[in-house]
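Data card: per-record layout.
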Amino acid sequence: MERNRQRHGRQGEDQRMTASLEEEMAAHFAMNAEMRARLPDIIAIADAIWQSVCAGGCVYVFGNGGSAAEALHFSGELIGRYKSNRRPLPATCLSADVSALTCIGNDFSFDAVFARQVTALAGPRDIVIAFSTSGRSENIRSGIAAAWAKGAKTVLFTGQNGAEIAKDCSLAFISPHTMTARIQEMHQLAMHLICARLETLVAESENV
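The structure for this 208-residue chain is written out next.
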């Protein structure tokens, strides 16, 4: 009798867990369906990156926490490859320089960790890309402002709450969500689509 109760209890718990995971999957699949409406933004960002690279510029990327990982992932795809064996594209992740981050954070302010690097490195031919699910981090805002001051083009990957700061950028990819996981998943797909577009542009340029 007791074993039956325990077994039924576990089955009920498993069913609830399965239902919860199915809800997560449904939300993810619905998000993927929303990407079609954002293809123009994805194409515009890829083309802006390509224009910068063709002009001899570099792609600078940064973000905090999980967004720092996204930024590092993106720079890795550009320098390495997405799918095709093509020439490397110049990219630097400003979230990855531990020495610079800790120096600036300690001697100045954590709010300045990206702005100071952008001021030192970026120029008018470059493109500066920020990842921020909230769009509210002061170091993200400061980094974007520093890019503008250096004449670089700016791009923001953000969520629904970052729409306001996106107005201060040349281009933006805005995930229409407030949940961090959904925003980051949408950013990942957008990044890969941008890389696919860039690899097509590289191939076309080499076949001219």
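Known properties of this structure: Residues 38-206 form a domain with the Rossmann fold fold (CATH 3.40.50.10490). The chain has one domain: 38-206.

See the next section for split statistics.
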